[in-house]
Design a protein that fits this description.
- This protein is mainly β.
- About 15% of the residues lie in helices and about 45% in strands.
- The chain has an 18-stranded antiparallel barrel.
Length: about 550
């Protein structure tokens, strides 16, 4: 009886304190996915606004504190040491709610939680009948906390070793490794990663500087402006949520290589997003993006209220070298548990040539997606299900640029939707939670891609400029707009969708993740990719079992 009363008092204290004490700290989407899953489900259920889940990561003060919700209760349990439940506390290998932490410190003003983690991932790959086993190991340490109620910080350092297997094949099983310099380009046996930021958070303002995963949009599968699958970017985030309006700005350093393989000097990507929710069932967002390089930080693009398209046209250098895009998205909840969403990106636009399939229409470059998600099960229950389906299309040369250094990429990968230009995709996703931290996820997609025309050495086919017969001028006639890193040659022919060496890809992924006991996690990943035709047909299979201890 006494234990029951004490637990009720603790839960009440968590509900009261969480919005204030935790407000300076972000949800750790890399290690703690429950808060993000909860936000998506609450949006579908109509218990939270679409604005609250349209920009990730969210700050912890925005996490639901309804302890009758199993997902919310898990998140509050997970972040419990950061609550100001008592002062003057220093504990090594601390235990709270059955979960161990490497360090807990609280003196009433500073709150710090330190964690250690260890991972071992054995697996196997098979490609065209050739099988190979692999093994990865990784040690990591994380420190997160706040100073007062408004200043927060986070640092996650990890260092891993490839104990067995080839880097190129392992990278196909894990996109994050495929975008790690030492792992892929340098083919090193060691790889590392860090996530770190400092942040000021008040009721209506969040300012973050550092590196962290980022997402704009309400699609549970992928998004066009900022994707959770994209390489991590270092930079500034400004987020201003106020009632039914939310403004978000980013300005980040990106990494890229030019056609000669040299690093692109000073590449930056900046984005703005303004979203409004006029009713409980409708949310509308507007976005603009700019990519620039080679001249250091541009203060015109650091202006939160600048319109990037106009700023990009203001000087000759910006007009020639910078890549501006605009976009819009809409989220509808016509019924409880049902969400319909759509997004549009406009890379270039000429009203006079809309619908023109000749060269004159090449100034029109779009990307768009349309999807639907449905939640099943009782709201707030530990066992839930969500089904999502969407169609996405990216026109030829969209996200790329004639100044190749200004593609909307980092480390050669899209910052937005994880798909090449001149492609479309039909994607299905099923998520089933047995508990908030034990789930099965199945992803299936079918992708068509009009790939660039390559010669026998794998290089773009060059030929005489078709616009000037007899001139002898050599241009990339093989570029059909199928490579986000090659925007040159976009006015040689009419940019017909799926023109080029057409490939058909079918992909199936199964992910089972569980926390069998506090601090002990396993992730089983199985994937199959079949791609026929195109430049690199393949039948690739992989299976991996990851065991993590700590976090």
């Amino acid at each position: 009886m006494i234990r029951s009363i004490v637990m009720r008092l603790i839960c009440s204290l968590m509900v009261v304190l969480a919005p204030f004490i935790l407000s300076a700290q972000n949800v750790d989407v890399n290690a703690e996915r429950v808060s993000m899953d909860n936000a998506v489900l609450r949006t579908l259920d109509g218990a939270a606004s679409a604005l609250s889940s349209s920009v990730w990561p969210a700050y912890i003060g925005n996490v639901d504190t309804t302890t009758s919700n199993a997902f919310s209760a898990y998140s509050l349990n997970y972040y419990w040491p950061l609550l100001a439940q008592r002062s003057d506390t220093t504990e090594v290998l601390a235990s709270s709610h059955g979960r161990y932490r490497g360090l807990v410190f609280n003196d009433g003003v500073a709150r710090v939680q330190g964690d250690l983690g260890f991972m071992l991932r054995p697996g196997t790959t098979s490609n065209e009948g050739s099988s190979e086993s692999f093994m990865l190991g990784r040690a990591s340490a994380r420190v997160m906390g706040s100073l007062g109620s408004n200043l927060g910080f986070f640092l996650d350092l990890s260092n891993g070793s490839r104990l067995r297997g080839s880097a190129s094949r392992i990278a196909q099983t894990d996109p994050t490794l495929g975008r790690t310099l030492k792992f892929t380009i340098e083919d090193s046996a060691f790889f590392d990663r860090y996530i770190g930021y400092v942040q000021y958070q008040s009721e209506y303002l969040r300012i973050r500087y550092g590196r962290e995963a980022l997402q704009f949009g309400n699609s549970p599968i992928d998004n066009l402006v900022h994707s959770m699958n994209a390489p991590l970017l270092d930079g500034l985030l400004l987020d201003v949520p106020y009632k039914s309006v939310r403004f978000t700005m980013t300005h980040s350093a990106a990494n890229g290589l030019d056609t000669s393989g040299r690093a692109v000097p000073g590449k930056y990507i900046a984005t703005h997003r303004i979203a409004v929710e006029p009713t409980s069932w409708l949310s509308v967002g507007l976005n603009d993006m700019i990519v620039y390089w080679g001249r250091g930080l541009d203060l015109a693009y650091l202006n939160p209220l600048a319109f990037f398209v106009s700023a990009g046209l203001s000087t000759q250098e910006r007009n020639q070298n910078d890549n501006s895009l605009i976009g819009a998205d809409i989220t509808l909840r016509p019924l409880k548990g049902l969400m319909v969403y759509g997004s549009l990106i406009v890379d270039d636009l000429s009203y006079t040539s809309l619908g023109d399939t000749s060269i004159a229409g090449n100034n029109n470059k779009f990307a768009y997606q349309l999807g639907v998600s449905k939640s099943l099960g009782q709201e707030g229950a530990a066992s839930r299900m969500m089904v999502s389906a969407e169609y996405a299309r990216i026109d030829p040369f969209t996200y790329s640029h004639r100044s190749i250094n200004a593609s909307y990429t980092s480390f050669g990968a899209p910052v937005g939707y994880d798909m090449q230009s001149n492609s479309d995709r039909l994607a299905l996703q099923l998520r089933y939670w047995l508990t908030p931290r034990t789930y099965v996820r199945v992803d299936a997609d079918y992708t068509r891609h009009g790939e660039n025309l390559l010669d026998a050495n794998g290089n773009l086919i060059m030929g005489e400029d078709p616009r000037y017969p007899g001139s002898g001028i050599q241009v990339p006639v093989g570029n059909v707009g199928g490579d986000i890193l090659r925007g040159d040659g976009d006015f040689l022919y009419g940019n017909a969708f799926l023109r080029g060496n057409l490939s058909h890809q079918r992909r199936l992924r199964l992910w089972f993740s569980a926390e069998w006991a506090n601090n002990i996690f396993t992730d089983l990943n199985i994937g199959y990719t079949n791609r026929n035709s195109g430049n690199s047909p393949t039948n690739f299979f992989f299976g991996a079992l990851e065991i993590r201890v700590g976090y």
